[in-house]
Amino acid sequence: MKPLLLGVAALVLTVPVVASGGAPKRTEAAAPTVQIDKVRIDRALADMVSSGRAVGVSALIWKDGREVYSGTAGEADREARRPMRRDALAQIYSMTKPVTGVALMTLWEQGKFGLDDPLARYLPEFAETKVFAGQDATGKPILRAPDRPIVIRDILRHTAGFGYGAGEDYLGTEWSRLDPLNTDHDLAEFGRRLAKVPLLADPGRRWSYSAAVDVQALLVEKLTGMPFERYVRQRIFEPLGMKETAWTQPEDRYPRLAAMYEKGAAGLLERASEKEQRGLNFTPGRKLTMGGAGLVSSADDYMRFARMLLNDGSLDSVRILKPSTVKLMATDQLDPLVTERSWLSTKGNGGFGIDFFVRTGQPRDANENRGALGEYFWDGRASTLFWVDPLNKITAVFLVQVIPFDGTLHRDFRRAVYGDAYLGPKGD
């Protein structure tokens, strides 16, 4: 592809900034020019490989309704000397979450549930879930009823009080004992087990990244009477022409899967275990289809999902969601009282919508990822990333297979896309 430079004339836009619980505020802001510089992006990808932070990377960018950049660097499989190609498949882990959120919101549009309905109305196993309130003098856990029920809005914005099982304290031990996300369980068994794990906090009080999106998947099954995987395939993947995105992949695609690399003790990337290489997708006998992880996709396939979001819920005359639903998902849903937000602030100056981080203000300092007011995105355990930037009409997909998560790759890719000095409009 030839080098391509695209500019956007400076515009004066009226940008809505929505604070949870209040009316939208409107801010007049001038949008600076964003140019897509192929040379700059190519250089950034190459540096990721030459610096030893990645073995292979791939990036795809659309702007103003057309592809403006596609590039790769390094190798998809270092040991096999297989170069990274545009059609490489990658485990995208938590980039699965927005797909699940879209699936559930198609049912909200059908009137199947209300956002503030109690979760237990549809999944009664969660009616008796307790909150962990510490331990008494003998070390016995203190469990009590939550001060309000978990509502569906909570599982959409990670405020239900669920966790992900980390740690060696009582809650971590209980998670390990009940093992809700064991792949030998189906989603129904997952739900029964998760409901017995005490909550970290009362619903609505704390942002805590969690298995809530797997509960979303269970809710899809409950509301439709269909296996979650089949519903997503029929309602999202097939209509959008996403032919290679799936939780269950055929064996003949395995040779196209990018290898997984893990940072070793010396800080160098080493080939990960065979279990990490194959993930859940090529594992025979798996019962669990997670809502929060598990998809394998390609840059072009996932870009179709991202473009659908950028186009307000439709792509190529196929509508998946209403524009108002996409706007709702891309609006900060966190009440000001949710002050405990774990590591969410490391994602940037913003809050959380429905399965997306949502930028609500300019980058605060030079170390923060570049981005525009109103953008929304999510990433994955193996350092993959996508974002939607409605202001600049940009969407980008970045694929790499590096664990643990390396945010410096995102920082450098975003700076290459926007330019290091880009801040965008201020917002509030």
Topology:
Layout: E1 11-17, E2 25-31, H1 38-50, E3 56-63, E4 66-77, E5 82-83, E6 89-91, H2 96-109, E7 131-135, E8 141-144, H3 152-157, H4 170-178, H5 187-194, H6 212-224, H7 228-240, E9 261-263, E10 269-271, H8 274-278, E11 296-298, H9 299-310, E12 314-315, E13 318-319, H10 323-329, E14 350-352, E15 357-359, E16 376-379, E17 385-389, E18 394-400, E19 402-403, H11 407-418
Parallel strand pairs: 9-19
Antiparallel strand pairs: 1-2, 3-4, 3-18, 4-5, 6-11, 7-8, 9-10, 12-13, 14-15, 15-16, 16-17, 17-18
Q: What does this 3D model show about the protein?
A:
- 26% of the residues lie in helices and 20% in strands.
- It is α+β, with helices and mostly antiparallel strands and 428 residues long.
- The chain has two domains: 11-103 and 228-418, DD-peptidase/beta-lactamase superfamily (Beta-lactamase, 3-Layer(aba) Sandwich), CATH 3.40.710; 114-222, no CATH class.
- Strands 5-4-3-18-17-16-15-14 form an eight-stranded antiparallel beta sheet. It has a three-stranded mixed beta sheet with strand order 10-9-19, with no helix packed on it.
- Helix 2 (96-109) packs parallel to helix 6 (212-224) and helix 5 packs across helix 6 (212-224).
- The two termini are 40 Å apart.
